[in-house]
Design brief:
89 residues; 3 helices; 69% helix
Length: 89
Amino acid sequence: MITLRPFELALAAAVILAVLEVLTGTFIFLGFCVGTLAVAVTEFVSSEFSLNRDALVFAAFATLAIVALRFAFGRRGDTNRVKGDVNDY
């Protein structure tokens, strides 16, 4: 029987998220992949699974990665500014 340690499962999830990123072309899954890699490193260093710690590490690193990737690779024309919109009145 094959037994997988928690960090191996996190690495497999990171690979799946990286493949999804290649298929979709957005930077969202890449940020999630970075968060999952941070969880894998944390689990490897501590040698145990802790849901609360892993969720916190994932959320923190994924958020930072998404924001950093947006600033690094975002284009100027990604957002549209409309003048004279009906919501301005």
